[in-house]
Records
---
Amino acid sequence: MIDIPCRERLIAALDVPDAGQARAYAERLGDAVRFYKIGLELFTAGGYFELLAWLRGRGGKVFADLKLYDIPETVRRAVANLRSSGTEFLTLHAERSIMEAAAREKGALKLLAVTVLTSFDQRNLAEMGYAGSVEDLVLQRARAALESGCDGVIASGLEAPKIKAAFGERLLVVTPGIRPAGSAMGDQKRAVDVAQAFGNGADYIVVGRPIRDAADPRAAAEAIQATIASVFKD
């Protein structure tokens, strides 16, 4: 697998209403988490880039989960603005012309293409007019992402083995929809647990509610870190 510091493989989603709560949550997590995802909820609350800089100033890494989807020129210009923000990862939807435009401006920023949301299943794809399987669409979009200059994909742990078999270390696989044993599924439909995600080839996992909604979020994060360490021990 790609050489990544073990404790950076967990990305904690700061899915809270505003930047003040995000700071308080990050402080509560402490050194149990080194990598954070900040997404649309915080982007619409104000103070997004100040929060990003604050997290970076504390030594954290940041994943801007903005799922860009617009005409290629607009996405290109947005990526040009974001590449100096200090974020490690940026998400966009896996449409070829959009990915190609973004890749032209990414610099050191790593682009992650969203294949199929983990809250979608076969029925959702059928409603959108796609007749193939979820797995086929994920692999099709992963190939397009690689060919377009993206660095990785957002994909369920269920499809991670096929992505790694097809593309190896040429694409990072970042897996959301993580549900440790005993966690509620919520709106996730294609979820896996921590060990399964990494066993299937994920390079990083993104965990939101199972940490945020735990009685002790730091302890929940440390439990996940312990599972990750057990997966990667020599």
---
Amino acid sequence: MTVRPFGAMRSVLAVAASLLLAGGAMSSAYAQGGHGSHGTPGTSAHAATPEQEAAAAKLVADVRAAIARWAKVSAAETDGFRQNNPFRFGSWGPAHYGNVTFSRDGVTLDPLRPEGLVYMKLQSGEVVLLGALFKAPKGEGPRPGGPLTEWHSHECATGMGNALRSVDGQCPAGTTMVPRAVEMLHVWTFGNPDGPFAHGLTNRGIEAAVRRFSAKR
């Protein structure tokens, strides 16, 4: 199947976004956007020291190199990764793949042993790798990049089967706090415009991934 022109892709994304907004699933607590929103809530990511910025850049490079072996989803499945949730837009979009073995090994923030991977199925049917997901007991996630590498938990239940990120221990109106024992850190390796440690994929992040991988064809 031929990938649709990007204009048509944007229309599909716009429709999907309107549906998500109608259900409250795209609240600002989840759809973090802009480089200033990745640090500790209330703190600018620009407060990172040069050493922390270097450490954050090294983490991204290390993760990119380590997960390259799983560029094909079939290779990840061979190594124990399994799809955790449907593709966001039904027949296409991003989805998480988890590894039970890595989740139980007691190792934290090891680029060679990520607890999860994030893939996106393109409208052509191809599945491409977007980055890795790391987990740690809440409050224990290493932060080599300081405010750049902020861990988070989705513990604000919407009542629609999904959960949003809490900010300073508070949930958005209309959601219910369900405390989590685990927190997570995404490391995006495709050039996410919201930053390499954005807490989730916004529509513009998805559009950037579509452009990136469609341009290679």
---
Amino acid sequence: MEHRTAQLHLETSKLMGVDFIPIGVTHSNQDKQTLLEELYVDHDASCPHCTNATGHTNTVFGTGNPDSSLMFIGEAPGMEEDQQGIPFVGAAGKKLDQIIEAMGLCRADVYIANTLKSRPADNRTPTPDEVAACGPFLKSQIEIIAPSVIVTLGSPASKYILETTTGITKLRGTWGTYNGIPVMPTYHPAYLLRNYTTETRSQVWSDMKQVIEKLSV
């Protein structure tokens, strides 16, 4: 569904008193895509953070297979993501693609989103208040997609989804849960590129092997 069509559909639904995300209902792939499009429109119209943020060109909502069993969650768009409106398309995105391919999958097999939908100034780390304001839309994305496993990339995403203040160095490699969904926290691909050592690469791969095992159960 195109963004404009989704906007019209959402406005009509609200006029009729219909919530845009039916709770506790199993959706087909097509239904999920429609719901995500409507959520995208609702986000751009009402997000407490993104509607007041400045300095970004596009909001970056999410991309991939809405019926995927695996969802990756990063922290926020960078410059290239902001320009294209697609998450993880810069250098960190290429590294994430390599990680996904090493798992025997491709980008089109998974769903990728961020905790924050608009680029922070100078690519700084999102603040907890920004994540708290925009984050409920991510939670709605998760509810629609209903993945079997979530991988959180980096500290902001991991802290938000797991509701913790513990840093990623201690969190990574250990399973957590979000609404009954197994969550594997690991390093953000940008961190991996900045610290491209044998140790960090083996840690991330160890985390992904656990994800592969979980998905195969």
